[in-house]
Structures are given as C-alpha cells and as structure tokens.
Amino acid sequence: MHPIDLPAPPPADPGAGAPIRILIADDHPMLREGVSAVIEMQPDMAIVGEARDGEEAIERFEALRPDVTLMDLRMPGTSGVTAIEAIRKSHPEARIIVLTTFTGDAQALHALRAGAAGYLLKSSLRRDLLDAIRSVHSGRRHLQPEIAADIAFHAIDDPLSPREIEILQLIANGNANKEIGRTLQLSEDTIKSHIKNIFAKLYVSDRTHAVTVAARRGIIDL
Which residues pair with 25 in a beta bridge? Predict the structure, then answer.
C-alpha cells in the first residue's frame, strides 16, 4: 500500500528551482543527523536548521521560516503538538510533518487537528520521508495507510471526555479510586462511574486493559 495524499489548497510559489528549505525538530541528535544525511543528498532539498524541543522549534521557525518542518511529538518541555499549534496560529501557511514512533489514532488525529499536514512513523523514514516532504511542500497532505486505517476504524467511537482521560492517566500512574477522588475532589462513587464509562468506550473490562489500549492509541502517556 502507498501513503495517502489528500488534496489541500496549493501553496504559494516558493520560487522556481529553489530547494525545499527544511527545519528538523527532534530531541534525539542521532535522528536529526540521520534525517539530515538523507535530505542533504537531495538536490531539491536543504536543511536550514534544527531544534531540540518544541520551544526551540517555535523560535527557529520564526527565525528561519522553513518551507517544511519535521516535528517530533514527544520532546522535553513544550510538546510537538503544542509547537504545531503555536506555529500554525501565527503562520497558517506553515507545512509541518510529524515524525513519531507512535501509531495511535488518537495522537495522530490530535496532531492533524493541531495543523500537521503529514504524519510519518520513524520506522518508515527510509521509505517514505522524501515523498512525504515533496508531497506536503506541493500542497497535499501525507498520511500513511496504517494511520489512516486506525483513524477511520475509531471514527464512530464515542470519545473519552477530558475528565475521563484525566482519570485514566491517574490510573496509569498507579492511583487507586480513593486517591483519584482525593486528587480531583470527587467522590469515589463518581470515580467508579467514570471508570465504567471508560471501560465501555474502550471496549475493555479491567483497568490494566484500559490503560494498555489507551496508551497504544495515544490517548494517555505512560
């Protein structure tokens, strides 16, 4: 199966023959070096800058105004999603591709709603990276088939509410119902009611399975 390119409004002409100017934001130096090595071999691409976290990505974007930004989601401090939202708020035309190790549909949807134009798994960089950059730069959206399939599969699911996600994250952190109730200033019965709803929405029957499914889908962090 080939990556899915979804239509989007065409970008402004960046200049005939000009290379695609790329900013890489990732907290792993080896990943940045590897991506740079691949991109620098392309005559139509050029690395213009690197960032180690979301805050630095925002600053570097403002200073460099790259054509395409490659953005990791989970970085120290300011997350990739927060950085995407900030950049797109100031620059709606910004073209951003997420690079991540996480396949979860909820996380992918969150990033796309924040303004990402592409979503790419790091495991497929060797195969799909260059096509994704060219596709997004030309004004299309780039989404791998497995990610698109997961999003479609869960499209009609009843989503967890912010409160349910908060409770599930506290469960994942090892808190009992009484501790969760104390933290959120809710009765234990209310917590139990929320957990029952969580189980129903995730199609699970116990706390461990709920945490496993939610983490896999990118609903919570472990």
Answer: 51, 71
Burial of 116 per CB tally in 10 Å (0-12, 13-18, 19+): buried
Kindly report, residue by residue over 24-48, the tens digit of the pLDDT: 999 999 999 999 999 999 999 999 9
Name the amino acid, one letter, at 24: I
Residue 100: φ, ψ to 5°: -150, 160
Q: Could you please report the per-residue DSSP string of 75-93?
A: -SSS-HHHHHHHHHHH-TT
- Judged by DSSP in three states, 49 sits in strand
The side-by-side arrangement of strands in the sheet containing 141-143 is 4-6, 141-143, 118-121, 96-100, 68-72, 20-25, 45-51
What pLDDT is attached to residue 9? 37
Q: Which of 8, 221, 222 is nearest to 107 (CA)?
A: 221
d(CA 124, CA 12): 29
**C-alpha span between 184 and 11 (Å, rounded):** 46
What digits encode the pLDDT tens for the residues 158-196? Answer: 999 999 999 999 999 999 999 999 999 999 999 999 999
What is residue 124's DSSP assignment? G
Distance, CA of 185 to CA of 179 (rounded, Å): 10
